[in-house]
Fold Triosephosphate isomerase.
Amino acid sequence: MMMKCSNTQQLRRPAAVTRRPAATSRRSAKTYAGATGTFIVGGNWKCNGTHDSVEVLVNGLNAGTIDANVEIVCAPPFVFLNQVLDTLDKSKFSIAAQNCWIGDGGAYTGEVCANMLTDLSIPWVILGHSERRSLCGETNDIVGTKVAYALSKGLKVIACVGESLEERESGTTMKVVEEQLAAIANVVDKTGWKDVVVAYEPVWAIGTGKVATPDQAQEVHAGIRAWFANSVGADVASSVRIQYGGSVNAGNCAELAGMEDIDGFLVGGASLKAEDFVTICNSAKFSS
Ligand SMILES: O=C(CO)COP(=O)(O)O
């Protein structure tokens, strides 16, 4: 059964959202991809925070004025999930875990399984983040299996893909990204993609302050959409939402948000500062 964010959140989603012509946009107006056409911003808090700093961050987020047309997912570390569940304003924000185990729970010391997340009414999980791929040995196949399993348990997934600097410089960006996507598509049937958001996060831009240019990001996002059209289906290609992640901040978000195939962001460092994160969440321009 699909977990839903909250009734309030579903109600506030418009049937379709179109973007105001933006100076940097390659087209005059667009409908964001996705069944709801909703811009989606994730805050990946990574391995940061204390009980007290989480309280400050949550208070700051709750106090922020957020465009009602934007879907927002905050991903605290596991140990703070309950605190955030209890205190974050869920009419404005949804909650994600940053990872989960590949299958059922059991004798897997240190792991958290999908059922535990749904038991807490956590609707989302981030899977395949480059830090888990590079630091924890998560291969494309492991990530694919994790995505399929999480979906089967009713979670919605932010699935991360992206190339390293070496791969970009050797001209293999799309090959790498397509292989990462194919490993998911091999085990997720076409209908499953409705609950998946793809986060394109070039590894060289993560935590480095070296943000992809809007054109660089747009090029890969368009390539990802083309891959979906060829490999999964035209309907999925037009409905899947693709986030950009990697050194997104309050200063660079508006120009990136204006690009045709950027349907949201996955934000690391800047998601730890409520004011900056709220600015990023409000960076998409909508028609009235
Ligand atoms: O990895 C990221 C989000 O998942 C991006 O991190 P930064 O925004 O800190 O570069």
Q: What stands out?
A: The chain has one domain: 38-81+112-281.
